[in-house]
Amino acid sequence: MVRWDFLAEMMLGFGFPSSFTQLVMTCVTTTTFSVKVSGTGHGYFEGKRGLRQGDPISPLLFVMVMEYLSRILNRMSQLPDFRHHPLCKRQKLTHLVFADDLMIFYKANDSSVKRVMEA
Questions:
Q1: Which residue pairs, CB below 8 angstroms and at least 24 apart, start in 30-36?
Q2: What is the CA radius of gyration of the chain?
Q3: What is the pTM of this model?
Q4: How distant is the alpha carbon of residue 82 from its chain centre?
Q5: Crossing angle, helix 58-76 and helix 4-13, to 10 degrees?
Q6: How far apart are CA 115 and CA 119, in angstroms?
Q7: Residue 118's CB: how many other CB atoms inside 10 A?
Q8: CA–CA gap between residue 119 and residue 78 (Å, rounded)
Q9: Pick from 71, 64, 68: which is nearest to 28 by CA?
Q10: Would you call 31 exposed, middle or buried from its count of C-beta atoms within 10 A (0-12, 13-18, 19+)?
Q11: Per-residue pLDDT reduced to its tens digit, 23-69
Q12: Residues 50/40, Cβ–Cβ less than 8 Å
């Protein structure tokens, strides 16, 4: 689940102009949803976070979020208290991302878990 405040901060951090970021955020944050029970709609409610399925810009934004996370995980892996998973140590592999799947690899000790959670 992608927080909208993070999405805006990330886009600005990647160097997107603030006017473009604001335009994208308007598209992302003006969502309303309806729940159907037995084929009948029951009111509307506003979205609070996340990316809409079927929205053409959602896959691009998700890829940018994964890129950001990849960069942070790579930096975390360079800290002295981070320990790689024993089978991934030689390659210094910390994570794999494919489509909407993410696998994170690290040694299950307190300091490594803390670093991954910080990321």
A1: none
A2: 18
A3: 0.78
A4: 21
A5: 70
A6: 6
A7: 9
A8: 13
A9: 64
A10: middle
A11: 999 999 988 888 888 888 888 888 888 888 888 999 999 999 999 99
A12: no
Cα separation, 72 vs 79, whole angstroms: 11
Report which of 34, 56, 62 is spatially closest to residue 46, judged by C-alpha positions: 34
| C-beta contacts of 74-82 below 8 A and 24+ residues apart | 76/115, 76/116, 76/118, 76/119, 77/106, 79/115, 81/111, 81/112, 81/115, 82/106, 82/111, 82/112, 82/115
The two tokens of residue 78 are 């360079």
Bridge partners (DSSP) of residue 81 are none
The burial class, CB within 10 Å (0-12 / 13-18 / 19+), for 70 is middle
Encoded amino acid at 4, one letter: W
Angle at 107 between CA 103 and CA 110, to 5 degrees: 110
